[in-house]
Amino acid sequence: MAESKQIVLPGDLIDPSLGKPRNGVFKCGDKQYCSQYFGIVQVSDQGVDVVPFSGPYYPRKGDKVIGKIIEVGPSMWTVDINSPYYTLLHMNDTPWRTTSGDIRKYLGPGDHIYAKVMTLNEIRESWLTLKDVGLRKLEGGHIVGIPAPKVPRIIGRGGSMVNMIKDATSTRIVVGQNGLIWIDGSPENVMMAIRAIKLVEREAHTTGLTDRMEKYLKELKEEK
Amino acid sequence: MGTVSSMKLIDENGIRIDGRSKGELRPIKIETDVIERADGSAFIEWGGNKIIVAVYGPREAYPKHTQDIEKAQVKARYNMAAFSVDERKRPGPDRRSMEISKVISEALSSAVMVEQFPRAQIDVYIEVLQADAGTRIAGLTAASVALAAAGVPMRDMVVGCTAGKVDGQIVLDLCKEEDNFGQADLPMAIMARTGEVVLMQMDGDLTMEEFDEATGLIMDATKRINEIQREALAGKYRTLTLSRGGE
Known about the structure:
The complex is a heterodimer.
Chain A lengths: L6 E2 L4 E2 L10 E3 L5 E3 L3 E5 L4 E5 L11 E9 L3 E5 L6 E4 L21 E9 L5 E4 L6 E3 L3 E4 L5 H5 L4 H10 L2 E4 L4 E5 L2 H16 L6 H15 L1
Parallel strand pairs in A: 9-11
Antiparallel strand pairs in A: 1-5, 2-4, 3-4, 5-6, 7-8, 7-10, 8-9, 10-11, 10-12, 13-15, 14-15
Chain B lengths: L27 E5 L7 E7 L2 E12 L12 E8 L14 H15 L10 E11 L4 H15 L8 E9 L2 E4 L3 H6 L2 E8 L5 E4 L2 E2 L3 H37 L3
């Protein structure tokens, strides 16, 4: 059994011999690099990252996210995408033929959408768009939230983890980059999928998770 | 401070009123993630102090005129419960708690990478449930743990301790009686790795030599307190990894 991944606190030195410092690492003095998060050190061919255990979602251009409409204006919707800042969706960025003033009939407060981050500026204002393949209003279903840094584990390598959960629980799942997950199916199946997702969330920092999940889902299926 | 008393706070063997030696800390215990709905939280027991800290944010700053286009605001609120001290404290902000909120906000904003969050604010609520001298430093130490648990990017952990002058001697981490009847009190907080001072206040008088001795004691103690912070944060992830086995 090899040792587990290194846990670091903000300000801990990162060994520069591990690789090129990338996300979550900052320069703290001459040729010294420190972690800026409480998280784990992840070494890959591209470099060294510190992946925080929790934290908000920071929008990046091109991310597909799940958002909740919180306000409707004459020509814009204000959308909460689980980030420090609200984001906007303009009526011209939707697939519908809208006219100013009556956009509420397409999306009202409380509705969820699967949208893409279109633009982003220096002061972290962002705009969403619904004009792309697969982007839509999410009707029915259930929303669960996990910390955004753990989304890559839920998706798995090439979508392996989420596809496994989908197949095992026979649900439809949409994972937003911002940590919100939409699940649709029969109530028991949805509950099962939520349990599986929460398990991945809790053990996101451990290794060999896909194999363990496979076993866990098999057990869940037999229970049913 | 200032209250003259015939009470002997340090005996002839150098043992203090609560049985500690000069450079000894009171027992410290920190626990994280005690509040479900906060983004990060911590509970600290430092001697008789019991303090709960909750962090919310970063989130958009309101009221809107407080937004800074260049950086985030760290808004700490230090509040003492009415039942936290011997005699009932009148609830609500007063001169003392507003001052402490201000110095804690400033200490934390030098550690948090505020420039990453334009227009945002980070709320830090420090609720003192039971006070026993040194609450500002205990609150600040716990706040930095709660911020780390919330996933807020920081340059360094903030860690603090107090020292003071009691019966003419410099001692570490004053307790209630020493704080009330001692001659000086020096709370100080630093960044754990670099040792930069982020908070320092002094009540009473110290000579230059006494001041150096006090800061020396504090610098030494912060290393021990930082280890407790580390254990509070990383401990439970480590045990989870162990029980599951590593790679």
